From TrEMBL:
GTP binds at residues 84-91, 130, 186-189. This is Uncharacterized protein. SUPFAM superfamilies: Dimerization-anchoring domain of cAMP-dependent PK regulatory subunit, P-loop containing nucleoside triphosphate hydrolases. The lineage of its organism: Eukaryota, Discoba, Euglenozoa, Euglenida, Spirocuta. Transmembrane segments: none annotated. Keywords: GTP-binding, Magnesium, Metal-binding, Nucleotide-binding. GO terms for molecular function: GTP binding; GTPase activity; metal ion binding. It comes from Eutreptiella gymnastica. Mg(2+) binds at residues 91, 108.
Length: 291
């Protein structure tokens, strides 16, 4: 038995049977013929006639799938609000961002949302009225903002202190503090306008982190490049800390919701107390009338 096994092994080695089988199997799997037996017969004939050498075939290279193209990232969903005194040029500045400068816009009464879309940004920009009465409502928007835009009339020196105090009121609120602050020193087309550097001093923001002051003219046609530069700056600032800002917004909105819930509960309690007192008074009144 052992001698017979050695004879078989010698035969295999002598005629390179193992290499022959490997070559035939590799060719068969590579070509995948519809009729494998006739195909193998032709391959054996070719080897026999010397057209194909019975040598160990090179391994078939593995087919590597082409990497799938990266999916485009979803645009950043960003919310900004434009603050400033009435007649500072907020609405005109926003129209410039849209590429359609309208110097004759009526003053904003209340709130106007403006939506801008690009491959990188899904931007919601709130235009908030700057009249004295509406400024008390500004704080209702702080929590949902990624960044703040403040527009000041750099040619109206009579209202510089008013503008400074309005901006300070925003930055003193914990829901707005620390978020990127873009200031547009508007109306640079006027001869009495202060420069961006001068307005930075007047508004007392030099020590505020993450702020930038751009001088601009919102009515310029074509659009003042500093408006574009300013918007690019604030959006880049938002990008660098987008996750942290988004998490902060989420927490602030939850806190606002809880505050509103508590305020409603307290109001309902006061109403219930008033009704009880009123019922007690009516009851006492009825007893006196009966007596």
């Amino acid at each position: 038995m052992a001698a017979n096994s050695r004879g078989k092994m010698d035969y295999i080695k002598e005629h390179k049977i193992h290499i022959l089988f490997e070559q035939l199997a590799g060719t068969l799997l590579a070509d995948k013929p519809a009729q494998p037996i006739p195909f193998l017969i032709e391959q054996l004939k070719a080897i026999h006639n010397g057209n194909l050498a019975a040598t160990k075939p090179e391994p078939t290279p593995a087919v590597v799938a082409a990497p799938e193209p990266e999916k485009p990232k979803d645009p950043y969903k960003v919310t900004l609000a434009v603050f400033g005194l009435d007649a500072a040029g907020k609405s005109t500045m926003i129209s410039a961002v849209a590429g359609e400068v309208d110097p004759n816009l009526a003053p904003t009464v209340g709130f106007n949302p403006n939506h801008f879309q690009s491959e990188s940004w899904d931007l919601m920009m709130f235009d908030l009225g700057g009249g004295p009465k509406f400024r008390n409502v500004w704080k209702e928007y702080y929590s949902e903002l990624h960044g703040i835009i403040f527009v000041v009339d750099s040619a109206d020196s009579d209202r510089f202190i008013e503008a400074r105090d309005a901006l300070k009121g925003i930055l003193d609120d914990s829901r707005a503090a620390g978020k990127p602050l873009l200031i547009f020193a508007n109306k640079q087309d006027k001869s009495t306008a202060k420069t961006a550097a001068e307005m930075e001093t007047i508004l007392e923001v030099k020590d505020i982190e993450r702020h930038h002051v751009f001088g601009c003219s919102a009515i310029a046609d074509p659009v003042d490049e500093n408006i574009e530069k300013g918007l690019e700056w604030v959006l880049e600032e938002v990008t660098t800390s987008f996750d942290a800002l988004s998490e902060r917004i989420k927490m602030q909105l939850a806190e606002d919701k809880e505050r509103r819930r508590q305020a409603m509960a307290e109001q309902a309690k006061r109403v219930e107390q008033y009704r009880k007192e009123w019922a007690d008074k009516e009851g006492e009144k009825g007893k006196k009338e009966e007596a």
